[in-house]
Amino acid sequence: MAELLRTDRLLVRDWSVADAEAALKIYGHDGVIRWLHELDRIPDAAGMHVVLRGWADEQREMAPGTGRWALVLLDGDTLVGGVSLLPMPVPEADVEIGYQLAPEYWGRGYITEAARALAHWAFQRSLVELFALVAPDNVRAAATARRIGMEWVGETDKYHRTRLEVFRLRPDDLVRARQK
Ligand SMILES: CC(C)(COP(=O)(O)OP(=O)(O)OC[C@H]1O[C@@H](n2cnc3c(N)ncnc32)[C@H](O)[C@@H]1OP(=O)(O)O)[C@@H](O)C(=O)NCCC(=O)NCCS
């Protein structure tokens, strides 16, 4: 499995179909899935296996600098979440950062740590801005967006047929948030 990056506590690496059982704690959980615009709850490990196989196939076709990755604790090798950089539906040149964590690991700053590192990685590869699309009542996701330095830039219903808050991150925002 190819490693993308490491932070103090986390490894960001490619997904593997061998992650199916652990990934189900994220994508099989109603408390996570209710906030995701592109995925229905995965019912079982066999279903998760199919989804992970699909993600691996898609990854091979994706533009450099985009993809979906697993988030693993360096201490203990436990899979705790997923992060992504995906082209937005309109315009396709824009990139959306996505993040999901198994609920038992919420409240430890893991996504803040991973998202900062992932954004830094993307900006080093010449991306100039990133977006997050957050449901209006998804308080935790919005707090994470703000914590990493994202700025609220408006609301839209042009994506995923639902109203979403749009957050934007530029390289300077990331630096400013780290200095706070
Ligand atoms: C969105 C989601 C990833 C946020 O998880 P999270 O653990 O709150 O995220 P963070 O990494 O930003 O952690 C912040 C929390 O950790 C705490 N924390 C502990 N150590 C920390 C550290 N070193 N750095 C930052 N925060 C830390 C913060 O105080 C905060 O806790 P609080 O909200 O209880 O006050 C998670 O709720 C989730 O998976 N939701 C479902 C999927 C989803 O909504 N995805 C986004 C769709 S747009």
Account of the protein in words:
- By secondary structure, the chain is of the alpha+beta class.
- It has a single domain (3-179), classed as 3-Layer(aba) Sandwich (Aminopeptidase).
- It starts with a strand and ends with a helix.
- The protein has helices spanning 20-27, 30-33, 45-61, 110-124, 139-147, 171-179; strands spanning 3-6, 10-14, 67-73, 79-87, 95-101, 130-134, 151-156, 164-169.
- It has a 5-stranded antiparallel beta sheet with strand order 1-2-3-4-5, sandwiched between helices. A 3-stranded antiparallel beta sheet has the order 6-8-7.
- The structure holds coenzyme A.
- Coenzyme A (COA) binds at residues 32, 35, 99-101, 106-112, 132, 134, 138, 140-141, 143-144, 147.
Instruction: Report the principal-axis shape.
Output: globular
How many helices?
6
Tally of individual domains:
1
SSE series: EEHHHEEEHEHEEH
Assign the CATH architecture. 3-Layer(aba) Sandwich
Termini separation comes to: 35 Å
Could you tell me the strand content as a percent range? Answer: 25-35%
Query: Helix- and strand-based class?
Result: alpha+beta
Low-pLDDT residue spans: none
Note the main attributes of this structure:
180 residues; alpha+beta; Aminopeptidase; 5-stranded antiparallel beta sheet; 3-stranded antiparallel beta sheet; 8 strands; globular; binds coenzyme A
